[in-house]
Every structure is written in C-alpha cells, then in structure tokens.
Amino acid sequence: MMRERQMLDDNINAIERMQSSLSDNVELIEMGEAEGDEDVIRDAEDAIKLLSTEVRKAQIQVMLSGEADGNDTYLEVHAGAGGTESQDWASMLLRMYTRWAEKRGLKVELMEVHDGEEAGIKSATMLVSGENAYGWLKTESGVHRLVRISPYDSNARRHTSFSSIWVYPVVDDSIDIVIPESDVRIDTYRASGAGGQHVNTTDSAVRITHIPTNIVVQCQAERSQHKNRAKAWEMLRSRLYEEELKKREAAASATEASKTEIGWGHQIRSYVLQPYQMVKDLRTGVESSNPSGVLDGDLDEFMEAALSHRIGGGEGSVEDID
Q: Engineered SS bond to 162: which of 71, 80, 91, 123, CB 3.0-4.6 Å?
C-alpha cells in the first residue's frame, strides 16, 4: 500500500508540475510578444519543447499501469517450421530480447533451452526481472518473420523464417491461484546443453502439463529436480494468470481482443535483411532501416507504438493530454 501511495503521489506531483510549467511558459510567450522580446519567446518555446518530451514519458507510464504491468515476466521463444533456418532465427530473437533487457537494466535468467540439431535453438524460456518488465514486453507476443540470405544455403538463396514469442507475467504473492494436482501431469527428463556433468546425467529437468488447458511449462535452470519443479509450478501459475488476463481483456472489449489475439499465424513484425534493410511492425506501421540495431536490442520505439495501439491511442503529442 505504501508503494502504491508513493506511485500515486509521484504521478500527481508530476502532472501538477507539468501543468504549472506549461502555464508559466505560455504566459512568458505572451509577455515576450507584448514587449517584442524575441529572446524570452525563444527560451519559453524551448522549455515547452522539453516539456513535450516529459509529457511523452508520462504517457508511456500511463500505458504501463495495467494490473500486471509492474511484474517480472517470462518470455518464451519457439522456432517455427523450417529446421536449422528457423532455429537460428529463434536464437537471434533470444539474443535480441536479452540485449534489450540488459540495456534497460533488467535482469535476465535463462530457465530452459532446447538446442537445435545443427545450430540455433528449438525453444527457450527466460525470466526477465525488473521495473515494468511485463508491461514493456507484453506486446511482443506473436510471430516474428525473418527474410535473409541463408548462411546455411550453399547456393546463397533468400530464405524466410518464422519464430514465435510468448510473454506472460510472473504471479506475485498477492495473487492466489489454486491448481489441483489431478489437473496436471509432471514429467522429468535429462537436461540438455551446458550445465555441468550432474545436470546432463540426471533427470533434473521438469515438465508440467496442465491437462484442462493443455498448457506446458518446463524448467531445467537448476541442478536440483526439486528446485526445477518449484520453478515450473511458478511458471504454470503465471501462464494460467496470463490466460485469465486475456479473458478479462476480451470480455472488456471485443475490438481489443481482435487486435491482441495471439496465434501461430498471427504475424506481428517482419525483419528483412535482403534484398533491402527494413524492420516493420505490421500492427502499428512503425519502421526502422537499421535492422542490426533492432536485433541488438533497440526495440523501445516498436514497444511504445504497440502499447499506444493496444490501448487505442496514437503516437501521442502534448495536445493529446489535456
């Protein structure tokens, strides 16, 4: 309650300060025009331009005020059909989100990874911890498309690859989700990839299947089967909570539900490396001619636009906030 009170207090103070600053600078412009003082007018206009940047940041904070937006989040990557090509693309996406999180000062923990036969990964799950981790990443769920000259094709032909991203929030202690053990199937298996001799020679990895929804979670981050089982249960609770959030959103607005529905055929963004350089978000129309920067974690522009689109807003401006 104290954290919520402090957040509300900070928001109110920020709004009052921005309103006061805008009012003061408008008065300065009027005075400068009356007295013919161009320096005063220019200084006040510059101050209003700086204020517009602050208002834009405040708009983003409003967009990150959902029920679970402040929570940590899980992010899953799954390679699509296409073997090595899509598995390599999945590993590129995992790196992209890892770099994005590191740039924002968020903590990343790899929960499980299934390596591809030749290169890349078949799937992976990572835990992203920090301020508004779920709020920022929640619009990234969907299918991501890559077009490039394949490094695995001896004829240097252009290939199109698909991988999917799934994002769901970590459930905190204030939310109680009861899952009857009769509703789940628990399997243990030998972990793959790096992790030491013990990890690779014992059935320490855990997979839990929720039978009513067919949701599957798995964890191999720890050497202990007991710890992996506990984390897998946390992941399952989070997935079921995310399903409930989607149901509430769908019930609140059929239009919004159609915008945010996630499916394997629902492509949200294209990354084209050949024959030209372009990343385009198909929901918002936001484009970047610097795919190397985007793949290195420069995603904020795409995320901000997607958040605006999700709540029915546009790009936003000072005039949008009265």
A: 80
- Percentages of the chain per state (helix, strand, coil), in multiples of 5: 45, 25, 30
Q: Is 321 exposed, middle or buried (0-12, 13-18, 19+ CB in 10 A)?
A: middle
Question: Angle, nearest 10°, between helix axes 38-63 and 2-35?
Answer: 160
Q: Provide the CATH topology of domain 73-169+257-313.
A: Alpha-Beta Plaits (3.30.70)
Domain ranges, ordered by start, for the chain: 2-63, 73-169+257-313, 181-250
Same-fold call for 73-169+257-313 versus 181-250: no
Dump pLDDT digits (tens) for 9-35: 888 888 899 999 999 999 999 988 988
| Strands 142-149 vs 267-272: parallel, antiparallel or unpaired | parallel
pLDDT: which is higher, 89 or 314: 89
| Tens digit of each residue's pLDDT (9 = 90 or more) over 58-113 | 777 777 877 788 889 999 999 987 788 999 999 999 999 999 999 999 999 998 89
* CATH class belonging to 181-250: alpha beta
pLDDT tens-digit series, residues 272-296? 998 899 999 999 999 999 999 999 9
Closest CA to 311 of 59, 124, 122: 59
Question: Beta strand pairing status for 267-272 and 205-210?
Answer: unpaired
